[in-house]
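Researcher: Please generate the 3D structure of the following complex. Treat every line as part of one assembly.
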Amino acid sequence: MITKRITFSTTTELKKSLFRPTFKTEDLLNKIAEIYNAIVEFGDAKLIEYTKKFDGVSLNSSEIELDLATTVATIDPLLEKAIKVAYENIYNFHKAQIKEDLTLETQPGVTCYRKSKAIEKVGLYIPGGSAPLFSTVLMLAIPAKIAGCKEVILCTPPNKNGEIHPAIIFTAKLCGIKKIYKAGGAQAICAMAVGTQTIPKVYKIFGPGNQYVTAAKQYVSLMGVGIDLPAGPSELMVVANSNRNPAFIAADLLSQAEHGTDSQVVIVSDSITLLNEINLEIGLQLNSLPRKDIAEKALSYAVEIIVKNDDEAIEVINEYAPEHLILMVNNENKYIENINNAGSIFIGDYTPESAGDYASGTNHTLPTSGFAKQYSGVSLDSFIKNITYQKITKEGLKDLGVHIEIMAENEGLMAHKNAVSFRLESLKKEVDL
Amino acid sequence: MITKRITFSTTTELKKSLFRPTFKTEDLLNKIAEIYNAIVEFGDAKLIEYTKKFDGVSLNSSEIELDLATTVATIDPLLEKAIKVAYENIYNFHKAQIKEDLTLETQPGVTCYRKSKAIEKVGLYIPGGSAPLFSTVLMLAIPAKIAGCKEVILCTPPNKNGEIHPAIIFTAKLCGIKKIYKAGGAQAICAMAVGTQTIPKVYKIFGPGNQYVTAAKQYVSLMGVGIDLPAGPSELMVVANSNRNPAFIAADLLSQAEHGTDSQVVIVSDSITLLNEINLEIGLQLNSLPRKDIAEKALSYAVEIIVKNDDEAIEVINEYAPEHLILMVNNENKYIENINNAGSIFIGDYTPESAGDYASGTNHTLPTSGFAKQYSGVSLDSFIKNITYQKITKEGLKDLGVHIEIMAENEGLMAHKNAVSFRLESLKKEVDL
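Model: Done. Output below.
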């Protein structure tokens, strides 16, 4: 049950009530530096040592790599079908994100271009733990495949028997991944960042993980390796008007709460009656959940916010910038138009967050901790980069050159000016001939 | 003159010869943490203290903010004209980068959307120093304006008299910026990241700077504030075939070398004759440069690479991933098709880097240090973020729901399953009625 209920007042007060636990990865950076340096120096040997220490599995160096070309994975046919349906939807929504090359003649004889190129080498991290997160394999490997990344590797910790779950293997193969590396935690991130005898070095690293994985991603980003997003605990905000189904909303809130004890759950409504009904429903639904204890703990930090109207609700949303936002509201369009800060938005009574988590087509790797104010979720763009090009004709430089010369001179950069002047002089001589 | 000449052999050897000085900002992070914490605690008071200490100027708190609505800036009419021409070209090329909203019905009744939203609050940093970098104001403020960022602020250190250069003020006003804050260095970055009594907190920070500014940007990025790019010293690689004009190439190399003693300059050619001619030209042009000493020092680290053919040259380019690349080659299209890693590419004899630095239309804020392997330069995209949306109809959930249920169950997340199951049960009851 959610015990913290507040009424919308001022933004300052709101900020205080919606305060998220800060994610102090800086404190971990020294520990990560140690792991990083050890991997740089000793490569596989150290990786094997960490895998023994943290995952409790002894691997020899030839067992780190799993070649998917020669690996068979059998899974329940119903799960296989579900993964394939999800694959299609995610593939199609990300395929639609391909952008055309851009060409523009900005002035006569001055043509600027932009082309997208895939990041050649990317590393995907899939955490271990109680269940196989094959859905995250879909969310990362599908856009990597569409982008055309040449080398897509996947690191995930092995189970106690040194094995990878068949659902992970099945999904990775489906997405065209050729190699899985049995490595987890900060050591896996460091290994992908610098390369070992077995694990190739990559240019960008994607995927969720615990605080060590997150800190390792931050650390390697300081070293120039790209990362998808800074990560914090997962979040759901639901905004609902009075006439909505409390059982649906309670189920959605619980689906967020079961992720982890640090999951962030917020419900915003103009109806105290609805809030009370939701709490009743939570009580009814909670008991049958296998992850009841986790959900209960997460809910003890959850917040209910009572608003008077849509404007207040929208202000709450934009201030909080939720990772996931479910809108069960009457004026949908007003919300969609005025919400600036959110990761992914689920509209209407029949659009649970679960749909986007698994199978509708959108990506589930999204900005948490309010980072939706400045970050997008993972998309096709996360796997490409753009190169700009320009080509200037003689005539084009004759027109533009003088302006470049003046600007360079005023910035005190005479060699920049000369690069134009020598060319203009040479063109003048051509005319004189 | 460039004294280091190597012949293309293996990638491993190449990597060694093209080794860039590593940028050890980690060592500075403790110093930055001190500045950051001081700004958090004392705000303007500490900012004023740092400005006195590092910039040698005493400001009182009412002098930090420069309101451009009431500030007049007069500059040379020729410079004014040049800045306006550059403004138009940069505006048009970035305006062309606007992307359409995306809508796709991934399966019947399941509709996924994507919309771009401007980052609401952005901070631009313009370094001080010997000359006013108004070109960087254009490169950052124009895409911010096109994106529709609500609050665009600019920090730049004042001169010894506490003033901002009129060319900076003129350009900022032209780009619609309303407030300039007189603050520089790491303290300006920290002030924009956390906000002070005078300087507003922003969500993302852009702009070049020295190693302290760079370290401060890295530090605040660990705190969740967005930054444009990790930055290192500027770079130029020129690839030229034998028949090209050595004076043009020498001028281009010098334009890079004059930036700073740590500027990276690389020339790749299949012609030893051309390389010798370029060196002669460098000797001739160098003496007349006001920044001769800087350029000479930078050139002492420069490298010439002799290649046998286009394939070797392309391998060198992709391995080095230059910030700027000038191509004076016969098989332009082969290069353009096969280059994956570069920031911005200048094609042909009449396309000096200076054109893109100032006025052609492309952005000059580009990935250095090999980061072009995974980062794009600044573009309109840098000032927006995408929100994804989905709306599922009753019929849509009936089709997709079962697959979500199976996937959730297999990931051990029963509340995720329930969020679908409760809805499907409710729909079943509707039919039964």
